[in-house]
Design goal:
By secondary structure, the protein is α+β, with helices and mostly antiparallel strands. The chain has 3 domains: about 5-95, Rossmann fold; about 105-120 and about 185-340, ATP-grasp fold, B domain (D-amino Acid Aminotransferase, Chain A, domain 1, 2-Layer Sandwich), CATH 3.30.470.20; about 125-180, ATP-grasp fold, A domain (Dna Ligase, domain 1, 2-Layer Sandwich), CATH 3.30.1490.20. It contains 12 helices and 13 strands. The protein has a 5-stranded antiparallel beta sheet. Strands 3-2-1-4 form a 4-stranded parallel beta sheet. A 4-stranded antiparallel beta sheet has the order 5-8-6-7, with helices on one face. The structure holds adenosine-5'-triphosphate. Adenosine-5'-triphosphate binds near residues 144, 145 and 279.
Length: about 350
């Protein structure tokens, strides 16, 4: 019997509930400190307790997962806590394309995949000297917005960078990637690409609620000027959004272009859930500043299905459940090799 496993964080509850609803045995690789939390949920069948998630690379853990015929569902915590070499070295089968996760973690590879997808992307700035207008400086990898900052010129950039160095958040310029700030309203577009059906499903949209940048609007301008902290973009939670229907056509075409480019650049291409992240400007044009090549935490909003999944499925379909459904269909048709790496 196949089981579905994931790491205890990020969207583990949604993923394992979905797998349970599709009839799979569920396994949580859980840090001991979080055991009490996850024991509250009866749809988790088995716990593999670890001190650190990196133990999934060790033989003891690999053997336990193998015994249960487990498939690992990767999410943000996996790539936040392991580097790309470690992720690629995982011996347990991974749902989706584990090779594309390197393209998500490395800012330059990420930019290449987005431009090959012909997405409209913000300009990246190669040196602080070239800053001329509002930029956002971001850390490499999935830092979840922590330690990111805005600047308008080189002097401003250096002051903020030095403060982060002092705090021990970064070591220097090489830890930062500078990108033009895109104006507008943010939207995180959630997709599922079925390699079995060669079909793209649009699953939902969310916005992130980020601290402390999203709290700034509550502070009047004179007091803002007096505050000398660097606002960060640390994700605290997610807020649902539905789009104007006239925007949907472009949503699908952007997703399809992304899937096409990924097939060319990183075989077997984008398989399963992914997210295009960006902002809509005042004319409804989308600028993509980022993608995630795996399930995003914003899908946790739609455990009972989303306003978009309801148009595709006559049952509650979360992203976690959709993943499990794909595994079930692949198993039934002897096509697991198409969706696992
Ligand atoms: P994750 O891996 O969790 O998606 P991340 O660490 O890769 O996050 P980003 O999504 O690139 O980080 O950025 C974090 C936040 O910073 C975004 O949610 C958004 O608010 C803001 N942001 C990033 N890039 C831009 C940009 N070019 N223009 C405007 N805002 C931006």
């Amino acid at each position: 019997m196949t089981s579905v496993a994931t790491l205890g964080s990020h969207c583990a509850l949604q993923v394992l509930k979905g797998a349970h609803d599709e009839g799979f045995k569920t396994i949580l690789v859980c840090e001991k400190k979080r055991e009490k939390l996850y024991r509250r949920f009866s749809f988790i069948d088995e716990f593999i307790l670890v001190d650190s998630f990196k133990e999934i690379l060790e033989q003891k853990c690999v053997a336990k997962l193998e015994e249960q015929n487990a498939i690992i569902i990767p999410h943000g915590t996996l790539i936040a806590q392991m580097n790309s070499n470690e992720v690629e070295a995982i011996k347990t089968p991974i749902f989706g394309n584990k090779w594309i996760l390197r393209w998500e973690s490395d800012r330059n590879m990420k930019e290449k995949l987005m431009s090959e997808s012909q997405l409209n992307i913000p300009k990246s700035i190669s040196s602080p000297k070239e800053i001329n207008g509002l930029i956002i400086a971001k850390r490499h990898g999935a830092a979840g917005g922590k330690g990111y900052f805005l600047a308008t010129n080189e002097k401003d950039y250096k002051r903020k960078r030095d403060k982060l160095i002092q705090q021990g958040t970064i070591k220097g310029d090489s830890d930062l990637y500078i990108q033009e700030y895109a104006f507008g309203v943010s939207a995180y577009l959630q997709y599922f690409y079925s390699a079995l059906k060669d079909e793209l499903e649009f699953f939902g949209v969310d916005r992130r609620y980020e601290s402390d940048i999203d709290g700034l609007g509550r502070i009047p301008a004179p007091q803002q000027i007096d505050i000398d902290t660097i606002p960060s973009f640390n994700v605290i939670g997610n807020i649902p959004l539905v789009l104007r229907e006239s925007l949907l056509e472009e949503v699908y075409s952007m997703g399809e272009k992304f899937v096409e480019a990924s097939k060319r650049l990183v075989k077997p291409g984008m398989t399963g859930p992914f997210c295009l992240e960006g902002v809509y400007d005042d004319s409804g044009k989308f600028t993509t500043f980022e993608f995630s090549a795996r399930i995003v935490a914003g899908t946790n909003l739609y455990v009972d299905g989303s306003p978009y999944s309801a148009f595709i499925y006559d049952e509650s379909m979360s992203m976690g459940r959709r993943i499990a459904r794909e595994i079930k269909n692949a198993k039934k048709n002897n096509q697991l090799s198409k969706i696992l790496t």
